[in-house]
Predict the structure.
Amino acid sequence: MNPVTGERAADRGVGFALEFEGLSYRYAGSDSVTLDRIDLSVQPGEFIVLAGGSGSGKTSLLRAGCGLIPHFHGGELAGTALVAGRPVTENGPGELADVVGYVAQDPETQIVSTTVAAELDLPLRFRGDHPAQRARAVEEVALALGIPHLLPRTVTTLSGGELQRVALAVALVTRPPLILLDEPTSQLDPVSGDELIWLLRRLNEEWGVAVVMAEHRLERCLAAADRVVAMDSGRIGFDGSPRDFLGWAISERPELATPSALMFAGAGIEPLPVGVRDAREILRRRKIGVGPDSGSASIYPPERRVNQPTSGDGSGSRPRGTVALESKRLWVELDPGDGPVDVLRGIDLRVRAGEKVALMGRNGAGKSTLLRAAAGLVEPVSGRVETPGKVALLTQNPGDFLVRERIGDELPGEEGRAALEAVGLNLSADRDPRDLSGGERQRLALAIALAGRTEGSGLPGLVCLDEPTRGMDRGLKANLTELADRLAARGAAVIISTHDVEFAVTFADRVVLLGDGEIVADADTRTVLSGGWYFSSETARVLDHPGVVSVDQGIELLEARE
Amino acid sequence: MKKLSPIAYVPRRETLQSASLAPVALYLGAYLLVCFFSSDPLVLVAATAGAALAGYGCGAGRAVGFSLRLGGFLALTMIIVNALVTNRGATVLARLGDWPILGQVEITAEAIAAGAVIGLRVIGTMVVIGVWSACVDPDRILQAVHGVARRSALTATLISRLVPLAATDYARIGEAAELRGPAAAPVGRGAMAHRLLAGSLDRAVDVAATLEMRGYGRSGGTAGFHRARSRFDRRFWLAGTVLVSLALLELVLGSDRFVTYPEISWSIGFEAPLAALAFLVGGFATWRPRVRGGRA
């Protein structure tokens, strides 16, 4: 229910907030259908999570729900699509703006005004609201989303998390009964991501806003959902409760199942848990002790406690190779335009050949700057960073590396082919990089960064990837893990900055956690990712057992405890 | 950490930022007009300096510096290209022989001078655009134009939003070009421009979709598009009117003052230094005395 007007969508005389009947859609110029006979209805006040792999049709479904399809993207639409009872074919996005809000994946392209206040004001102006009404609506939505302090800020100074909140506020400012979100947490750190999910749940409960949210990291949002709809090749593969979804996913699409569900299924524990709290409750009911003091001694003793004095390289008892990166009291200062700011504060770090390191931390903690310093893109104001071998850095947008229309033009000659081979790509030189899948584009960009930097075993000493998992489904992340393994096995040190804890569990053997430009934890993966609230895997949060972070480790522990 | 584009708009309590759109457009439009059309080097240099002073006066020093650097690079390119491709002019400085495609290449003082005039125009135009971009709130453009010319408002909004985004993209793509391995094909300016253009088109589509989602295309009104007048408006109306008049006079009277072909001839009368002085001094219109001990 809207706290100001007391109005609910149902009171407006509409049935479903969103209704698709036999909806099919084909993008202009495409040979195949993107949406195939979709039947879906969303009740007012429902919270629906839209699951599915990359390219399964989630984004297109959301676009059809706000009128961008077909009015903006063209193409052929068949069947019925109603938003609050209004046919989408007869009402464009502008006409639907007061009954549906849409938040796309990249918040940077969704902001068109200069200041946050002007951005929130814009849809109300277009609607022709009176200035007094507008002022109140802006104030209230800013309070609801906890961003009143951002109102006078220029949008160019906002962090990714702040931008995402502003985009959400803009979608809500006209108080639509339905909001559609396309992977809203993909660019957020675990803290901001969790905050956003529960903010949506609160708005859903208090304002009665129906929420349809596409998301890859289901472990984050399943507990907040009333219902899950899973897309599969343009069709709805599953539509039901979160618990039933997990059962379906375990048997049909294991890559969509959450870590805790996989762990319970592997250990033969039922029912499957919807979130951490549910998992712990199920274990408690089954009298399976969790936590560090319950049951037998740890089966995975941590190699070293976080923040304990170390040799300074964080490598524990692992075999020591040659040093690929060493920084000593590294200070980096950047000027975002309004004066210099310390971004890295005295970083001491040593990474050796063959190590796989996950670099984690909040948005703005200094992860990208550390990688850029390693690649020589930024100069330290104090201290030093040394990379005895060559360095390859893949920045956050692989598309920035792809400037030509043929792969062969990007990577000519034998060395080009060798670089493609190094990343496991076997593509025709005539293919257009823009036609490649997201994972292939990323590999190609990495091959471009590696080309000609090959050393002894065929690779640079250090390979850095800056947040490569954004918007990736689990299959693509598995490919990335395999690539990192391959690079490390051939002697490169691999550092990947990521917000994705579950990915870090599968990829890394060491985690460096940054906080406000300083290293706050540096140890093996099992130690770092089992010792906190936010930067912990779901398995670790369920079992709360030192050193147990992965699904397999969790299954082993549960079987030992049962 | 995000780095602000040097030409991105930053709200400040300065004169250009506070004034209404129309007088600011008139004032900066005068500089744009003269920088675009004048062929007198003295006037062009003075107008560029005046526009730079205007930018410095309202806190847009970074935008001015960036525009000068970019404009300077483009100007140098134009001088070189013009010198190589134009064989006109009586004063031959060097004969470079027969070149593929270009044929017989002779470097003449006249061709260099003609390229330099074009270069000066580019530098001046870049500085004016940089000051506009850094000092004029794009929201005001949208508000001002939306009611009267919806399509123009959309174009204006897209441009004002895309300029900083394109600058960010340019920096990112440039950085990625630096990170390419030595065996990857190098990224020339042509490939970079092509990629930037393609990216800008994608960006434009995204921004247009967002505007559509905000209800931009609705037939409903735009009630309350209103901005209080500023105490600086009169200053810019006055300065703008004078400078636009001078710019128009300069276009009419000064078109053949500086001639490059077949020989360089520059007849400096009294009107060119006067116009130059006016455009230089006009740059101080954005400046204001700082009040010591005053409260915000």
Summary: Chain B touches chain A through 61 residues (CB under 8 Å). The mean pLDDT of chain B is 84. Residues 20-139+233-286 of chain B form one domain. The radius of gyration of chain B is 22 Å.
